[in-house]
Design goal:
The protein has about 110 residues and is α+β, with helices and mostly antiparallel strands. The chain has one domain: HIT-like (HIT family, subunit A). The protein is globular. It binds 2'-deoxyguanosine-5'-monophosphate (DGP). 2'-deoxyguanosine-5'-monophosphate binds next to strand 2.
Length: about 110
């Protein structure tokens, strides 16, 4: 989508610290990190919210989570513990309407989240 900031990152029209990419997904460092590790994993396919995921996206979403796990392993936070967050719609705090997993780690997480 032409006005989507994450589509622009996918198309390399705006810069990002990309740490992983393949045919289906991309991972890059969050511009406003909330933890020592804060990486975003996104599908190349433009899907605005979690509610827009279709049956045909099942493999893609599985792959997205597996890539998130790989990044947690590669960054050395998997065994210590990490959090995956996916915000959906305004009250969750979603600001970019292209689905993404936040991988957060490298510090003690708290519950309930803010
Ligand atoms: P959310 O609130 O769940 O929609 O998270 C969107 C995240 O995207 C937020 O943590 C900041 C990050 N973000 C927004 N714009 C950019 C950008 O241009 N580059 C990068 N690297 N991250 C961005």
């Amino acid at each position: 989508m032409s006005d989507c900031i994450f589509c622009k990152i996918i198309d390399k029209k705006i810069p990002a610290r990309i740490i992983y990419e393949d045919e289906h997904v991309l991972a890059f460092e969050d511009v406003n990190p909330q933890a020592p590790v804060h990486t975003l994993v996104i599908p190349r396919k433009h899907i605005p919210t979690l509610l827009d995921i279709k049956e045909e996206d099942n493999n893609l979403i599985g792959h997205l989570v597996k890539v998130a796990n790989k990044i947690a392993n590669d960054k050395g936070i998997a065994k210590r513990g990490f959090r995956i967050v996916a915000n959906c719609n305004p009250e969750s705090g979603q600001t970019v309407y292209h689905i993404h997993l936040h991988i957060l780690g490298g510090r003690q997480m708290h519950w309930p989240p803010g």
